[in-house]
Amino acid sequence: MVEEGALLWDPTPEAVKNAKVTRYAEWLGRPSVTYQDLWQWSVDNPAEFWTSIWDYFEVIGDRADGPVVTGVMPGVQWFAGSTLNYAANALRRAETEPDRVAVVFRDETGARRTVSLGELAGEVARVRAGLVRLGVGVGDRVAGYLPNVPEALIAFLATASLGAVWSSCSPDFGASSVIDRFTQIEPKVLFAVQGYSYGGRWFDRSSVVADIAGALPSLAATVIVGSPGWEELRSVSAPLVHEAVPFGHPLWVLYSSGTTGLPKPIVHGHGGIVLEHLKALSFHQDLGEDDVFFWYSTTGWMMWNYLVGGLLVGSAVVLYDGSAAHPDMSALWRVVAEEGVTYFGTGAPYLTSSMKKGLRPTGLSALRGIGSTGSPLPPEGFAWVYEIAPDVHLGSFSGGTDVCTGFVGGVPLLPVRAGVIPCRCLGAAVESYGAAGEPVTDEVGELVITVPMPSMPVMFWNDPGGERYRESYFADYPGVWRHGDWIKILPDGGCVIYGRSDSTLNRGGVRMGTSEFYRVVEQLPEIADSLVIDTGQLGQEGRLLLYVVTAEGHSLTDELVMRLRRTLRTELSPRHVPDQIREVPGIPRTLSGKKLEVPVRKILLGIPPERAANLDAMANPEVLRHFS
Q1: Residue 537 has what pLDDT?
Q2: For 315, phi and psi rounded to 5 degrees?
Q3: pLDDT reading at 325 higher than 60
Q4: Which of 21, 88, 87, 95 is nearest to 56 (CA)?
Q5: Which helix (H) or strand (E) holds 416?
Q6: Tens digits of per-residue pLDDT, 448-478?
Q7: Do residues 276 and 453 make contact, with C-beta atoms less than 8 angstroms apart?
Q8: pLDDT value at residue 287
Q9: What is the pLDDT of residues 271-292, one digit of tens each?
Q10: Which is more confident, 505 or 439?
Q11: CATH of the domain spanning 7-489
Q12: pLDDT at 357
C-alpha cells in the first residue's frame, strides 16, 4: 500500500509564479502571502474577499453600493441591489473573439463537432427567441431531459439569458425519478430527446418522455431536440440580449441524490454561481483562456453545471456523451489525448478502475491538471496518477450539489500528498467539529462551514418558510452549516475526507469512515468493488457486513475470505473484521456513481427496498435484491 501523506508532486518556483492565484494575490497587494494566510484572510473577511472576486474578474453587471453581505446563516443576503446575468458573463467574449472554440463535443460512437463562441451565442439567441414565443419569461422554469450534448448547453444559456430558471436530468433517469423532480418546479417548457446511446446500445426514451410530459400540466410545449419542433424553435434569428436580474435570482434547480423521499430542489442564484465558479475554476483548477476543460459528467450531476462554468473563465469545454468504459476503459483517456485537454476531471471510481485495469494512457502531453471528486480517492489512486502523468497537478476535491462546488481541494501553490486533499478552498470556512461541537485539528469530526458562501442555496423550491432548508443543514449547529461528511483537518491545513457521517462505522467505540475500509479491501487484486455496512444503532452495536464484487476470473473462496479478514485486522483493527463477508454481483450506486451505503443499511434493518431507495435514481437497481 502507498503510505498516506507520501509526497508525490511539488510545484516548481516557475509553476507557483505563473499560477493564476499568484497573480490574484499580487493584484490584492499581497505578493508574498502564503496560501494558508490567503485562505485565512478570505474567510475572516468575506465581504472584502467576494467583492475582490467581482472586481478582479470584472464581472459584467451592476454592483450596488449597499452592504456585500447581511444576516447570518441561513438567512444571508449577498450584494443587495446588485444585478447581473450568468449567460452575459459566460458569453462575454463572443463579440470580440467569435472564432474562438467554445465547445468540443465527443461521444462514444466517434462523433465529433466543435462550436465557436460566435456560433454558440447565435444559437443561444435563436433558442432564446423561441422560448419567448412560447411565453417563457423571468422566473419561469425550463426543464431538460437531455444527454450531454451542445443543445443542452444552448438551452440552458438561453434560459439563463431570459432570467428563467433551468433544471435538467439525464435521459438515463427513469420516468418516476424525473417526475419527482420536475413536478416540484412546474416547468413551462421541456426539452427532451427520443433516445440516447450508452455502452454501445441505443435506448429509446420516447415513451418515458410522453410519461414525463403527461405528468407536467404546467407545460406549454415539449421540444424534442433534433426534431422539426427544435428546428422551428430556433428558426428565427435575433440579437442576443440578457435580462439583468438580482444577485440572488434563481439560476437553476439542482437536486439531492433522491435515494430516499422526494429529492430536495436546491436553488442557486446567478451571482453566487458566477463568483464561486470564477474563483474555483481560476484559482483552484488554474483554468483560463488557453485551456481545454473536460469533466466527465451527465446533465444530471452538478459537475455538468461546474463544467459549463469553464466558459466563465474563457476555457473551451469538452462535452462527452456516453459510457466512460465503452468500448473499453481507455475511452476518456483517448479523448483527453486527441483533444489536447489541459484539465481532465472525473469521478474517483474511474481513476481507481483505470488503475486496477493497469492502464497506461499515452498522449497526455497537453495535460496540466487532473481533478477527482464524487468519493474519496485512495492514496493508491493518487500514486497511479503520478505514474502515468508525473508533472500534472492532481486536485482531489470534495463539496457537493448543495453548493455546486468544492469546499476542499487542490491549489497549484501546494504540494500533492497521497490521500490528502491539500487545502480548504478560498472563501470556504471549513472546520472539523468534534463531539462537543467545537473545532478540532488532526482529529476526525463533522465537516461544517462556519462562514456563509454566496453559492449556498438561495432557497429550496416550494419551501417558502425555509424550514426544509434549515433542517437539511442547520438543525445540529444553529448558524453553522453541517454538510454530513467526516473530515480530518491536518495542522498544515491539509484535509482527509472519510465518507458520509451518517454511514460511519463504529465498532467498540472506534469510529472510522467507510473510505478507509474500501481502501484496504479494494487494494486486493481479486476485489473489483465493495460495500461495508454497520447495522448498529444508537446505544446498540450491530453487525459489520462486507459485500464484495470479485474481479473478472475470481470468486470469493475461503482463502480470499481469510485473507480479507487478516488484512483488515492488520491494517485497521481487530474491531473492524467483518461479521460476515458476502459476494454480490454489483454494488448499488446512484446515477452519478456514489455507493448507496445508507439505503442498504436501511434495507438490512428491515425497510423494504422500494422505500429505502429511489430505484429510478439508481444506476443498477436490480442489485438491491441481493442485500435484503
Answers
A1: 58
A2: -80, 150
A3: yes
A4: 21
A5: strand 416-417
A6: 999 999 999 999 999 999 999 999 999 999 9
A7: yes
A8: 98
A9: 999 999 999 999 999 999 999 9
A10: 439
A11: 3.40.50.12780
A12: 92
> What are the residues whose beta carbons fall under 8 Å from the beta carbon of 520, sequence distance 6 or more?
1, 567, 568, 571, 572
Contact 428, 453 (CB under 8 A): yes
Amino acid identity for residue 158 in this structure: A
Q: Say how far apart CA 124 and CA 147 lie, in whole Å.
A: 18
- Give a three-class secondary structure readout of 168-237: EECCCCCHHHHHHHHHHHCCCEEEECCEEEECCEEEECHHHHHHHHHCCCCCCEEEECCCHHHHHHCCCC
Question: Looking at the domain 501-627, which fold is it?
Answer: GMP Synthetase; Chain A, domain 3 (3.30.300)
Identical fold, 7-489 and 501-627 = no
Query: Domain limits of the chain?
Result: 7-489, 501-627
In which residue are the cell numbers 473530515 written?
487
Report whether pLDDT(538) > 50: no
pLDDT digits (tens, 9 = 90+) for 201-254: 999 999 999 999 999 999 999 999 999 999 999 999 999 999 999 999 999 999
As a whole number of angstroms, the distance between CA 189 and CA 131 comes to: 8
**306 Cβ contact partners less than 8 Å away, ≥ 6 residues apart:** 277, 280, 281, 295, 297, 404, 405
Q: What angle do CA 109, 148, 331 make, to 5 degrees?
A: 40
Q: In what order do the strands lie in the sheet with 398-400?
A: 398-400, 405-409, 423-424
User: Residues 588, 623: contact at Cβ < 8 Å?
Assistant: yes
Rounded to an integer, the average pLDDT of 298-320 is: 97
Helix (H) or strand (E) holding 482: strand 481-489
Asked if 146 contacts 225 with a C-beta cutoff of 8 angstroms, the reply is yes
Residue 569 pLDDT: 80
C-alpha cell of 275?
Answer: 463568483
Cell output for 107: 461521444
The yes-or-no verdict on residue 587 having pLDDT over 50 is yes
Q: Read off the pTM.
A: 0.87
- The answer to whether the beta carbons of residues 409 and 396 sit under 8 Å apart is yes
* Amino acid (one-letter) located at 415: P
Residue 56 · residue 24 · CB < 8 Å = yes
- Closest to 77 measured CA to CA, from 105, 50, 110, 53: 50
Of 403, 167, 160, 446, nearest to 280 by C-alpha is 403
